[in-house]
Amino acid sequence: MKRTILFITFIFCVPYCSILLGQNKDKAVFREGKPGFYQNSIMKDDREVKEKAEPVTVSRSFVVDLTNASLPNKFDLYKNRQWHNPPVSQGNTSTCWCFSTTSFLESEANRINKLQVRLSEMYTVYWEYVEKVKRYIQQRGNSAFAEGSEANAVTRMWKKYGIVPLEAYTGLQEGRKYHNHDAMFNEMNSYLASLKANSSWNEEAAVATAKSIMNHYMGVPPSEITVNGKKMTPQQYLNDILKINPDDYVDILSYTQEPFYKQVEYKVPDNWWHSNVYYNVPLSDYMSALKNAVRKGFTVSIGGDVSEPGLDRVTQCAVIPDFDIPSAYINDDARQFRFSNQTTTDDHGMHLVGYLEKDGKDWFLIKDSGSGSRNNDQDAKEFGYYFFSEDYVKLKMMDFMVHKDAVKELMEKF
């Protein structure tokens, strides 16, 4: 049986040899991981606060070797970029969904109203946790409770609770420079587990306890702020100052497991409230909508997989190597195949702020809040950015949020 299978496989492959021989042969290496921004800055800050040092472990990972590649990995090359605040670290938290989308909406405030503001990520995170606790109680412990979420959680929380400037609520206590939610999350998670074990489903009491935990670690979020000498609520700040309508933002998704040109659920753990408002489109429409949006001067909040051998944290570039899949074969099925077998996962949210064209394809300037983009010179313009190839976005970035005006033609198909 084994011989027969091998023979058939050989016969099947022969017609394609001439095609495969024409592909590039990207190389790969095993590279030892050196202490980077996470260990040297975020965890250093954590150690100083706790007065405790932790040993740094050395790891090896299988990654593409881009040593001799010609890469557009300089910030200044991206002339087609939109206003955005400098990259901000999310610290030791899993709140990329909020950092990326808050950055995106800061750019929107500038695009719409010419404002340059820094908004509080932790204000949104605080109320997101409140909503998670409520649903956990309502679902009798059968709702996910974790740090992660999705881009449209931000607009959802803004619509309900408003938003405040960063100076009104930083969420940093004890003189910290970087956020660390380990202790806070573990305390809340243990508390909810105890409620489930004892079938104690008092929503009001659960929310009050969760708030008291967050108040200790993050501080109490303001119910009123003063802007330009005028007192206002967070909702008034959103409506009257930022003038951003949360309902104006749409989430574009592309996978084949749900019907195209329908609003569907994005079935990943971080979509903990099972949002089913994602506009699912074929990959060709997905890429066209994205490329057209950035050419019209829009930015997007984008999310997908960053745990790939093609994402090189030395050059800060993301490519799809030939040993993964040749460029010509990236299509709807290749994308869905990786999502279905979980080699594409919903890892990380980022802010796409610019693009350039190189060799007939786009490269995208990606503002990042994670540590992987910060292992270079802190004074370099590239600090806190990635440079994503069009192929990487096409295969590995699962969804993006954008203003509805940027995708009018696409919305007409629904």
Low-confidence runs (pLDDT<50, min 5 residues)? 1-20
Helix content: 25-40%
Please report the distance between the alpha carbons of the first and last residues: 50 Å
Shape descriptor reads globular
Query: What is the C-alpha radius of gyration, as a whole number of Å?
Result: 23 Å
Largest sheet report: 11 strands, mixed
Question: Which sequence of SSEs, written as H and E, runs from N to C?
Answer: HHEHEEHHHHHEEHEEEHEEEHEEEHEH
Main structural class: alpha+beta
Quote the beta fraction.
15-25%
The count of strands amounts to 15
Put simply, the count of helices is: 13
- Average pLDDT value? 92
Question: What layout of secondary structure does this protein have?
Answer:
Blueprint (H helix, E strand, L loop, with lengths): L1 H12 L3 H5 L6 E5 L4 H14 L9 E5 L15 E2 L14 H18 L7 H18 L12 H11 L20 H16 L5 H16 L6 E3 L2 E3 L1 H9 L6 E5 L8 E3 L13 E3 L2 H13 L4 E5 L6 E2 L4 E2 L13 H9 L7 E11 L2 E7 L17 E5 H7 E7 L4 H4 L3
Parallel strand pairs: 6-8, 11-14
Antiparallel strand pairs: 1-2, 3-12, 4-5, 6-15, 7-8, 9-12, 9-15, 10-11, 12-13, 13-14
